[in-house]
Each structure stands twice: as structure tokens, then as C-alpha cells.
């Protein structure tokens, strides 16, 4: 996965070095922790998160169960793996469905984060994995062509698209779409909302109004993994203003800085639920912290 390539390479080099030692001294561990800290900082992981992570890993590595072992290197690798998974959220979380359909999912995020793409990808995922009948609502009336884009990609994944063009009020569209979804007996309604280039009061205010109109069961924040710590700051601002239940981490196939994926859970307390890994509509999967950690460490 693109965003983790550089980090992966460095962590693997460090751990392979550690694994090569028959016995480990305190200095060996200290050196390894220094390298891990640097690798994480270069991946643009939040400074405090890095500090906590390396402290935890170091303390566990210095424990008697590691230093006294015949194969301490192996143990260190295991600890880093476990802590990396814990950092990304530990157990994999899923979205919950309403006992009284339609389940309403609200998609939020900045413009360009990959929100409209993720809306269609999630619709496809729910159809394939849960056999759900899915409708999507086009409430991003500001970005030029966002409605047309959703009509196109929604159609490609076989979702019903509810849209009223770009002149209608997004809160009204959302309310109307929910009525339609009920009439049409849909299992799930995914509401695509407007993004802005930056977090601002107008954006948050509109989201709060749409939230009140459709009472979503789940609010997902789409976050661009390629924007590093900026992405985490954006998530913090959304958490404060509208709150959300989980993150869709998009563009994990990108070429830099996996830091957002590694710090967003620790900083906001919200788990990453889905990973988007390319422009194609099937490049989307449930996010499993343990599998991701294993992928990073090779
Ligand atoms: P929105 O403004 O948040 O609705 O963003 P879009 O869904 O239109 O996505 C913005 C751009 O990012 C588009 O060119 C998408 O094709 C692209 N994109 C979205 N998700 C991914 C992803 O996971 N990987 C890559 N490489 N590109 C993506």
C-alpha cells in the first residue's frame, strides 16, 4: 500500500536487524526505538502519538519476558506488530444497521477527500457483502459536477440515485431522499454531502442541519490519507463540530505519509472502518488494524 511504503521499508529494516541478534541488550532496544521513532515521524505521525507508541513498545521490550528469552528479536517484532495494530484501533469495527430500515449513513469530509467516490464504493460494498438494496442521495450541490458524478458512479454500482440537481436546498434533498428510500423499501440510504476546501462554520452548520433532518445511524468522515497530519487535524475539527462514528481512509494507494492512518484513532478516538485504495469502485475494503499492521511489517 502506497502510503506505507517508506515506513514499511524502514520498520522492516530495523526489525530484521533486531531479529538477527541472538541476545538483545538495552542499547540494542534503544537503537531500535530511535529508528522506529524516526520512521514514524517521517511518515507524518503525530508527535505525541509517536512518543506514546515508542514508550509503550520500549517498556514491553525491556520486560523480563523478552530480554530473558532465547529468541528476543522475535518477541520484539511481535510486540511492535501488536502495538501497531492497537494504534490503528485494535479489533476491526463495523457499521451497525438500524432494526428499522432504511439505515441512514451520512458521509462527511472536505472537498476532494474522496467522499463522492467513497459513497459509491460503500454502496457497492453493502450490496456485495450484505446483500442490501442501497440508495444514495446527492446533497453536494456546490461542487461543480458532484451530482453528475454521483449519478454516474452510483449507477455503475447499481445504487438508486436520488437527486434534485444543484438548485435545491441540500437539507430538503436529504429529507426528501429519506422519504423516497422508505417508500422504495431500501435497506440503506447513503447521503453524500458537500465538502469545502477548509473546515468552516457554513459547512458544519449545513451538516448539523442534514443530521437533524435524517437522523443518521452512522456518520462517516472521509479522510485523505495523503494529507498526513492535516487529515488528523481536520478529523479533530469534525469530531468537535458534528461528531462522527468512524473514518473512511481514502487514497491509501497514494505515495506518501501514512501518518494519518496511524494517528487518527489515537487522536480522535474514532476507528477507521473502511479503506479506499484506488480510483476503481471495487478498490474499497473493511479496515482491519491487525491485518494492516502485518502488511506494514511484511
Ligand atoms: P469529493 O470532493 O470528496 O467528493 O472527492 P471525489 O470523490 O470526487 O474524489 C476526488 C478525487 O480523488 C477523484 O479524482 C477520485 O477519483 C480520487 N480518489 C478518490 N478515492 C481515491 C482513492 O482511494 N485512491 C485514489 N488514488 N484516488 C481516489
Automatic annotation (TrEMBL):
Domain SRP54-type proteins GTP-binding: 271-284
Keywords tagged on the record: Cytoplasm, GTP-binding, Hydrolase, Nucleotide-binding, Ribonucleoprotein, RNA-binding, Signal recognition particle
EC number(s) reported in the record: 3.6.5.4
Localization in the cell: Cytoplasm
Keyword GTP-binding recorded: yes
Chain residues that bind GTP: 109-116, 192-196, 250-253
Cellular-component GO terms for this entry: signal recognition particle
GO process annotations (BP): SRP-dependent cotranslational protein targeting to membrane
Top EC group: hydrolase
Task of the protein: Involved in targeting and insertion of nascent membrane proteins into the cytoplasmic membrane. Binds to the hydrophobic signal sequence of the ribosome-nascent chain (RNC) as it emerges from the ribosomes. The SRP-RNC complex is then targeted to the cytoplasmic membrane where it interacts with the SRP receptor FtsY.
UniProt free text on domains: Composed of three domains: the N-terminal N domain, which is responsible for interactions with the ribosome, the central G domain, which binds GTP, and the C-terminal M domain, which binds the RNA and the signal sequence of the RNC.
Homology family: Belongs to the GTP-binding SRP family. SRP54 subfamily.
Name the UniProt record assigns to this protein: Signal recognition particle protein
Organism: Paraconexibacter algicola
Organism phylogeny: Bacteria, Bacillati, Actinomycetota, Thermoleophilia, Solirubrobacterales
Gene: ffh
Entire-sequence positions represented here: 35 to 332 of 479
Amino acid at each position: 500500500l502506497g502510503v506505507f511504503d517508506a515506513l514499511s521499508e524502514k520498520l522492516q529494516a530495523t526489525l530484521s536487524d533486531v531479529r538477527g541478534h541472538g541476545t538483545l541488550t538495552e542499547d540494542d532496544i534503544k537503537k531500535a526505538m530511535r529508528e522506529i521513532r524516526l520512521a514514524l515521524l517521517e511518515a507524518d505521525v503525530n508527535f505525541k502519538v509517536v512518543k506514546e507508541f515508542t514508550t509503550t513498545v520500549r517498556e514491553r521490550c525491556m520486560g523480563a519476558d523478552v530480554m530473558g528469552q532465547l529468541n528476543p528479536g522475535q518477541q520484539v517484532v511481535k510486540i511492535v506488530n501488536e502495538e501497531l495494530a492497537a494504534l490503528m484501533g485494535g479489533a476491526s469495527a463495523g457499521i451497525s444497521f438500524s432494526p428499522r430500515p432504511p439505515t441512514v449513513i451520512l458521509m462527511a469530509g472536505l472537498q476532494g477527500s474522496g467522499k463522492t467516490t467513497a459513497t459509491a464504493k460503500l454502496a457497492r460494498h453493502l450490496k456485495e457483502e450484505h446483500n442490501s438494496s442501497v440508495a444514495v442521495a446527492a446533497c453536494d450541490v456546490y461542487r461543480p459536477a458532484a451530482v453528475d458524478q454521483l449519478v454516474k458512479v452510483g449507477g455503475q454500482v447499481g445504487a438508486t440515485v436520488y437527486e434534485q440537481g444543484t438548485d435545491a436546498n441540500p437539507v430538503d434533498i436529504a429529507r426528501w431522499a429519506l422519504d423516497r428510500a422508505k417508500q422504495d423499501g431500501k435497506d440503506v440510504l447513503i447521503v453524500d454531502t458537500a465538502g469545502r476546501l477548509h473546515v468552516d462554520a457554513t459547512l458544519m452548520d449545513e451538516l448539523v442541519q442534514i443530521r437533524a433532518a435524517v437522523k443518521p445511524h452512522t456518520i462517516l468522515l472521509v479522510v485523505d490519507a495523503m494529507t498526513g497530519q492535516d487529515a488528523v487535524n481536520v478529523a479533530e475539527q469534525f469530531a468537535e463540530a458534528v461528531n462522527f462514528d468512524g473514518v473512511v481512509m481514502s487514497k491509501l494507494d497514494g505515495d506518501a505519509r501514512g501518518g494519518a492512518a496511524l494517528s487518527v484513532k489515537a487522536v480522535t478516538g474514532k476507528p477507521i472502518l473502511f479503506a479506499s485504495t484506488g480510483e476503481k469502485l471495487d478498490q474499497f475494503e473493511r479496515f482491519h488494524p491487525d491485518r494492516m499492521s502485518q502488511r506494514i511489517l511484511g
